[in-house]
């Protein structure tokens, strides 16, 4: 299947506000509400035919740029700036290009433009990340294929050798790698335990929402049958150990796998090593430590890639997340002792593909596989946001993915009923009725409804979204 070439004629942005049912605290930030942006892209092929696609993503404050001097609204405006810049670049292109070339030809310029404006590289990636997904959706819908089928056939035209974006993969057989992927039928939901989350009834929230959904970790384990967990760390060793001891008591007997998320809270490798020593030597945490497969971004980004982490990395694998800001970040991190990198839709699905290829390439030269890609969340919401992320990690073959949007938000309760019913019909089994939300049973999320869905996990043009119920502001 040849990669079609096309122009990007129009890109539109809309927003709707999302209120959290529980406060979500990670690092030094606590989020109670934020906008979700929706993108629509119209593309025109060389034969004159057109297609439209869409994507969505939360605009979570204090993750892309954690400068405490910035307000939440300033964080939102940074992301809008990245969206506008990417739109201007993609629409301005003169020649018809493949989906990959639209991304690759603009990558360096958009990063440089953002840097000149004082924006973080993670912010710069946000605009292309959403537009690339909307473009891919349009391409898949026009071709009548699912995301998995399109990726296996390289419908987007990924050409590493001709891009100059990942020279370390020179000679790697990308088409063969893409063709070898096969979508999973289900995936384990790795449950986030935020720093403000109640662990059990002893610290249950006095003003907990009366929506019948879990408000404590213990309740969530029971309702969803959870087996995979992701506790957050605060960066204070004594507090982190005490909290992990409480979490361990709740998940003991349920946990099959645990990851820890530092969210940049430890100052440097020495600071993190103190925590690691305490965790590995605390008897109550022995079982939890044995099931902990990696620690995510424990060190703040301005120090994370400044020195080797080989010593702690030999004791437990370390993964970069916030430090994975550019396409070459994983290469830099590998040289310092990191072995993992996150797949996160807000950073772009092409980055996930490139980093997955790196893991395959590097592991092929090792006596034992060491390098890995892990699926992480940014409070993905029911609808096309979570659908596209699940389609991506399912096609990549990941066995578990962090999911937390269903826990911190009451599904699509605030969305028009017509949109909720459309999603139930389009993706049977993926959602639960009522206030429509992601279906998690036995700790697993069904992926079969997405594997065959036309488009990038949308099913139909417009994805059943109530577009007139949102604001179009830029």
Element layout with pairings:
Blueprint: E1 6-26, E2 29-45, E3 50-58, H1 72-91, H2 99-116, H3 121-143, H4 147-152, H5 174-180, E4 186-193, H6 217-224, E5 228-231, H7 237-251, E6 257-261, H8 269-281, H9 286-291, E7 292-296, H10 301-304, H11 310-315, E8 318-320, H12 329-335, E9 340-343, H13 349-363, E10 372-375, H14 384-396, E11 400-403, H15 405-408, H16 417-426, E12 431-432, E13 437-438, E14 444-446, H17 448-451, H18 454-457
Would you kindly provide a brief summary of this structure?
By secondary structure, the protein is of the alpha/beta class.
Plain-language structure description:
The chain has 474 residues and is of the alpha/beta class. Helices cover 39% and strands 19% of the residues. It has 18 helices and 14 strands. Strands 4, 5, 6, 7, 8, 9, 10, 11 and 14 form a 9-stranded mixed β-sheet that branches. Strands 1-2-3 form a 3-stranded antiparallel β-sheet. It has a two-stranded antiparallel sheet with strand order 12-13. Helix 6 links the parallel strand 4 and strand 5. Helix 1 crosses helix 2, helix 2 runs antiparallel to helix 3 and helix 7 crosses helix 8. The radius of gyration is 21 Å and the shape is globular. The protein starts with 5 loop residues before the first strand and ends in a 17-residue tail after the last helix. The mean pLDDT is 96.
